[in-house]
Design a protein that fits this description.
It is a single chain. By secondary structure, this protein is mostly helical. The chain contains three helices and no strands. The chain is elongated, with a radius of gyration of 19 Å. The protein has one domain. It is about 75% helix and about 0% strand. The chain starts with a helix and ends in an 18-residue tail after the last helix.
């Protein structure tokens, strides 16, 4: 049973690493702030969640697992909120999405 848990934990850690790497390529390749923010927000949250699950499997049922669970819950609550706040602040100060014509913006934005 220990071998299966180790393999499963390794798979979660590898998937989390791949997710974060894909997000870093998205930040590098995508054209504007909002698409880059989207790539960073989603892949960082999912990648970290997968890595924390892998670490919880490796730790077994100990106090370390409970601490990792609290970190996971904190990340799942704060990362999407921070990404939304950053995008909202950028839009509020006037940074417009790439490729959106002026006439497609709401009336008060023109």
């Amino acid at each position: 049973m220990s071998v299966i848990i180790d393999i499963l934990a390794g798979a979660f850690l590898a998937l989390g690493t791949v997710s974060v790497l894909i997000g870093s390529f998205g930040i590098w390749r995508l054209p504007d702030f909002y698409t880059r923010l989207h790539a960073a927000g989603i892949t960082d949250t999912s990648g970290l969640a997968l890595m924390l699950i892998g670490m919880m499997l490796l730790a077994g049922w100990t106090l370390v697992t409970v601490k990792l669970l609290f970190v996971l819950l904190l990340i799942l609550l704060t990362s999407p909120t921070a990404t939304h706040a950053l995008a909202n602040a950028a839009y509020t100060v006037g940074l417009r999405p790439l490729g959106v014509p002026e006439q497609d913006l709401p009336e008060k934005e023109r």
